[in-house]
Specification:
- There is one protein chain.
- The chain has one helix at 173-187, and strands spanning 17-22, 27-29, 49-50, 55-59, 64-66, 73-77, 88-93, 100-101, 107-108, 124-127, 136-137, 139-144, 157-169.
- The protein is mainly β.
- The strands form two sheets. Strands 1, 3, 5, 6, 9, 10, 11 and 13 form an eight-stranded antiparallel sheet that branches. It has a five-stranded antiparallel sheet with strand order 2-4-12-7-8, with no helix packed on it.
- Strand 7 and strand 8 form a beta hairpin.
- The chain binds calcium ion (2 copies).
- One calcium ion is lined by residues 67-68, 70, 72, 128-130.
Length: 188
Amino acid sequence: MRSVPALLVAVSFAPIAAAGSFFPEHLRARPAAVVNPEVVLFAPDDQSIGLGDGRFIYHLRSLLMVDGDGPDLTVYEADFGAVEFGLVDVLVSLDGLSYVSISGTMTTGVRIAGDSSHGSASHRKSFDLAGSGLSEVRFIKLQGLADGAAGGTHGFDLDAIGIINGVVPAPGSVLALAGLAAMRRRRR
Ligand SMILES: [Ca+2]
Ligand SMILES: [Ca+2]
């Protein structure tokens, strides 16, 4: 019986991803009274919700925020009225169970491509994962510290958040995986 020569195929399974900035598109949790949660998603657009004592939890799903150089997250308050970053706690989590506050890292807001509608520099601040004990996170919680329920302009007026240092699927990665599968089929 003839033996079939073994064909050794080396395939790299390194993460097919690229570093990049993005605006979250999904929430895991929102205050019960909020009926239009998309107001705090995507790029800042001057549409906002007062946090009051409520909280939003953003879910990055397959994406991650990572600890890159300098600040990693920008939080946009509606760019009118009082600057109220004292009325919000910014927390992060990888597993969605235990959260760490990164409010102590607050610094000058870093702009992200696509945020041009946000006009007031004092109404945006940036935050850093460094020192949190986490090098990457999938959940970001904005906890309101004002009195009263979320809604209207109660407390911190959340417009949007943006990830400065993110890991996102590289363009064409799905195509590359499909091509790999086709190549394997041909080799059978
Ligand atoms: Ca950082
Ligand atoms: Ca908004």
